Amino acid sequence: MKFRLSYFVIISSILLFAYFYSQNSIVTSSVVFTAIPFALPLALAAMVGVMCERTGIVNIGIEGTMLVSAFTAFFLGAILKNITAGLFIGIMTGVLVGLLLSVMTITWKMDQIIAGVIINIMAAGITSFLYRQNFRIPSTFAPIDLPILGDIPVVGPIISDHGPITYLGIIFIFGLWVALYKTPWGLRSRSVGEHPSSADTAGVSVVRLRYLNVTIAGAVGGLAGSYLALEAVGIFERGFTAGKGFTALAIMIFGRWNPLGAFAAALFFGLSQAVTNQLMIDEVVQIPQQFVTMLPYILTILILAISAGKVRPPAAEGIPYEKEKV
Amino acid sequence: MAIMQRVKLQSLSIPLLSLLIAFVVGSILIAMQGSNPLLAYQVLFTKAFGSVEGFATTLAKATPLILSGLAVAICLRAGLFNIGAQGQLISGALASAWAGYSFVGLPFLIHIPLALLFGAFFGSLVALVAGLLKAYRGVHEVITTIMLNSIVIALADYLASTPFKEPDQPITRTPKIEESARIPDIFGLPLGFFIAIAISLAFWWLMRKTTTGFRIETIGRNRSAGWYAGISVKRVIISSMLLGGATAGVAGAVETLSITGRFEPAFNAGLGFDGITVALLARANPLGVIPAAILIGGMRGAASTMQFRAGVAPEIVDLVLALILFFVTAPILLRLLKRKEEGISLSSGWSN
C-alpha cells in the first residue's frame, strides 16, 4: 500500500512535469529550479526533526537553532570576511544548541516542548539583542555547474547551478536514509525511539545515543541556518527564519519520519511556493502579498490536519528515559 | 500523558532566584557591550517603580500582559501550551478597533462592552481552530498556534492595509475609534488595569471553586485519569482554548481601546509572546500572573529610558526575559535547592 502510493506520486509528478514542459519548457524548468532553494532549508530542518524524534526526542527548537546559526554564520562570516569559516561556525553553533537541548531534555528530563520553546525564545532574544546593521558578507556561496549531470537534457538545467550547501544537504538527506535503515546505528536509533527499555536491555546506551543524535541533528540545523544566511539570501534580519522550523515539523510528519518522505514533502512545499511566485510574476492571479506570505503556514496546518492521527510517531517520543531500577 | 504537575504558589523561591540569576547574566552581557550594568538597572527600576507617574505607566504596560499571561496560564492548567496568544491578541485588537470606529452614536456604556466582546470573540475564534484540531485530529497545539500567529499577522496586515484602512492616509492603519469606545482612565490609571485584575480574580475563582475549573485541572494533571473519570477531554481542550483565546482577545481590545486608539500592525508586537513568560514565571497561577506582568511591564516600559540614559539597547529586556524563562523552567534551580523535582510536563508526541 505504502509503496504503491509513493510510486503513484512519483509517476504522476513526472507526467505533470512532462505536460507543463511540453507547454512551456523555459518557465517550467525555472519554476522547478527555484523550488529547490525554497525546499532545501525546510528539508534540512525536517531532517533535524527526523533524527531527534526517531530517537525519541521532540525537537520544537529547530526554528531557534536555525536562527542562531544563521546569525553566527552571517556575522562571523562578515567579520572574518570568510564565508567558509562562517559556515563552519554556523554548524558549530547548531552543535551547541543541540547539546543544550540534549542537556535539558535528556539529563534534566525537562518537558521537551517547553525546552524547545525556550530555545526559540532565547534564540530570538540573543539575536535581536546582538543584531547590528551594516554588516556584509563578501559574497554568497557561488553556484556550482555540475559536470556530466548538468549536461543531461531537461533534468540537467534543473539540478545544476545550485550552491554547494544545497548539494551537501541533498547528499546528507540520502545518506541519512541509508544510515537510518541500513546500518546498525540506524537500527539502534530507531529502537531507542520506539522502545528504549528493550534497546537498553540489548546493550544500547539510550542516553548516549540520544545525546549523539540530538547533537548531530543540531549540526544539521546549523547547516540549514547557514544555508539561509550564506547561500540563499546573503543577509541576516531579526526573525529571519520566519517559521521555517515549524513548517519543517509538519513536513517531517507528512513524510512519516522518513528522510526521503520528508524530502519529497519539502519539494512539494517548495514547488507550491515557486508556482505561486511564477503566477504572480505572470500576473495570472492577483493575490495580495500577505496571502502569499500566509501560504506555507496554511499548508502546514492543512497537512497536519490531514495526516496527524493517521500517521504513527515513534512510540517513545517525548518521554524522558528512566532506567529501570532492579 | 499530558500531566501538569503541581504548579504551586508556595514555590516562590524559584521564580525569585531565576530573576536574580537572569539579571546577573544580563549584567555581564551589558558590561560586555561596554555599558555600566548597575546604572542600567538603576535607571530601569527607578523609571519603572520609582515614581507615581512611572508606576502608572508600568501598570498600563502590565495590563495587556496580565491578560495575555492569563491566556497562556489557563491553557497550561489544561495541559495545553498556547503559544498563540500573540495571534489571538492581534485578532482581538483588530476586531475591537473595527467595532470602535464602525459603530457611531452608541453610548459608551454599550460601546465599550460591545468592542470588548468583539475582541474576545475574534480572539477565541483564532484559538478555536487550534482547539478543534487538537481535540479531533490530535494536531499539537504548539505548531498550530504558531502557524495561526503568522496567518493572523498577515491577515490583519492585509485588512488594515486594504478594506479597513483609514482613507487618505499613507500609513497602514485603521481609522481612530469613536470617543464613546475609549476606555477612560481612573485616578490616572487606565480602567483596563482593573478589568484585567477582575478577570484574574474570576479565573482564580473558576479554577478553585467550580467544577469547570476542576475538570480543566484534572485533565491538565492526568489526561487519561480524567478520561476514566468520565470527563470529556475534547470539551475541556476546546473550552480552555476558547477561554484562553477570549482572554488574549480582550488583551488586544483593552490595549486598543485605552492606549492605541486604533489598529496598526506594529502596535501589539510581542504582547502575546510576553504572556508566555508571564504565565511560566507565575507558574500558571491566575493571581501570580499579576505581579509577573507588572515586573515585565515595568521593564518594557522603562527600556527606552534605559537606552537613552545608560546606552543599553532595549533588546536586553528580551534577552533577560528569555533567561528568566530558562531558569524558571530548567530544573537546575530545583536541584540546587535540593527539593523534590516538580517540573511542568505537557507533552509526549504529536498525537495524544
Description:
The complex is a heterodimer of chains A (326) and B (352). Chain A is built from 13 helices and no strands. Chain A is an all-alpha fold. Chain A has one domain: ABC transporter involved in vitamin B12 uptake, BtuC (Orthogonal Bundle), CATH 1.10.3470. Chain A is globular. Chain A starts with a helix and ends in a 19-residue tail after the last helix. Chain B is mainly alpha-helical and 352 residues long. Chain B has a domain of 224 residues. Helix content of chain B is 69%, strand content 1%. Chain B has a two-stranded antiparallel ribbon. Chains A and B meet through α5, α11 and α13 of A and α5, α6, α11 and α13 of B.
Describe the structure concisely for a colleague.
By secondary structure, chain A is mostly helical. Chain A has helices at about 1-25, 25-55, 60-80, 85-105, 110-130, 155-160, 165-180, 185-195, 195-200, 205-230, 245-255, 260-280, 290-305. The model of chain A has no long low-confidence stretch (mean pLDDT about 85).
Largest beta sheet: strand ordering of chain B: 1-2
Uncertain regions of chain B: pLDDT < 50 for 5+ in a row?
A: 1-10
Order of H and E elements of chain A: HHHHHHHHHHHHH
- Classify the beta-strand content of chain B into a percent band: under 5%
Indicate the multimeric state.
Answer: heterodimer
Overall average residue pLDDT of chain B: 84
Nearest-angstrom radius of gyration of chain A? 20 Å
Largest sheet of chain B: 2 strands, antiparallel
- At the fold tier of CATH, the topology name of chain A is ABC transporter involved in vitamin B12 uptake, BtuC
Amino- and carboxy-terminal Cα gap of chain B: 8 Å
CATH H level of chain A: which superfamily? ABC transporter involved in vitamin B12 uptake, BtuC
* Proportion in β-strands of chain A: under 5%
CATH architecture of chain A: Orthogonal Bundle
The count of strands of chain B amounts to: 2
Q: Could you give the count of β-strands of chain A?
A: 0
CATH C-level class of chain A is Mainly Alpha
Mean pLDDT across all amino acids of chain A: 86
Helix content of chain A: over 70%
Q: Structural class of the secondary elements of chain B?
A: mainly alpha
